[in-house]
TrEMBL record:
Domain of life of the source: Bacteria
Keyword Signal: yes
Organism this protein belongs to: Sphingobacterium oryzagri
Short name of one Pfam family: OMP_b-brl_2
Lineage of the species this protein comes from: Bacteria, Pseudomonadati, Bacteroidota, Sphingobacteriia, Sphingobacteriales
Residues of the signal peptide: 1-20
Keywords in alphabetical order: Signal
The protein's name: Porin family protein
Domain Outer membrane protein beta-barrel: 19-187
């Protein structure tokens, strides 16, 4: 499955490269992630993203952007046990994603405002959970790897959903961008409620 997804991403980029007006870009920045239906006391889990993409014009002020992205996601909790100690739990997951976004460009000043949206499919490739604090007989920090396979897996491999993005491209190609990643698939097997990714992202990039 992993090879199929990566091959699909490569095929999209190669197809895009065949277009005469295609430009290429690279974006990177900060992710702030949580999960849906995973508790009201979650905090933003800070991670990062790096995305390579092609921009393929298909109409005036309109383009399609296929890409390949490394995305850090997860969630974090902090609990104060009112005199009995404190604890912080975090889950950090790295995912390889293939987004395909439709982008609309609005000329503004010397550059362009852009608005975009589209689907993505992701493959969770690694993850860790960490607990640190001072709770009862436990004091310190411990961590363990997430299991993505088998009947007793901690997390499902496939993550899919929708991207939303907005930003500004300067005349020299420099990008300022923000986005929202709306997961639509169940991440936690055997959980009654659907647990999905909710990730805000902020970053910079360059399109050339």
């Amino acid at each position: 499955m992993k090879k199929i997804l990566l091959s699909l991403g490569a095929a999209l980029l190669l197809a895009a490269g065949a277009q005469a007006q295609t430009s290429w870009g690279l974006k990177a920045g900060v992710n702030l992630g949580k999960y849906s239906n995973f508790g009201d006391d979650q905090k933003n889990n800070t991670s990062f993203h790096v995305t390579g993409f092609a921009d393929v014009p298909v109409a005036a002020n309109f383009s399609i952007q296929p890409g390949v992205s490394l995305q850090g996601k997860g969630t974090r909790f902090f609990e104060d046990y009112e005199g009995f100690g404190y604890g912080e739990f975090s889950r950090n997951v790295m995912s390889v994603e293939i987004p395909v976004n439709a982008v609309y460009w609005i000329p503004a000043g010397s550059g362009s405002v852009f608005l975009g949206a589209g689907p993505y499919i992701g493959f969770n490739v690694s993850g860790k959970e960490r607990l640190r604090g001072d709770i009862g007989n436990f004091s310190g920090q411990t961590e363990w790897d997430l299991d993505f396979s088998g009947d007793d897996r901690d997390m499902n491999v496939i993550d899919a959903g929708a991207n939303f993005m907005a930003g500004y491209k300067l005349a020299n190609g420099f990008l300022l961008n923000a986005g929202y990643n709306l997961g639509l698939t169940q991440l936690v097997p055997g959980f009654d409620n659907k647990v999905s990714n909710r990730v805000w992202s902020f970053g910079v990039g360059f399109q050339f």
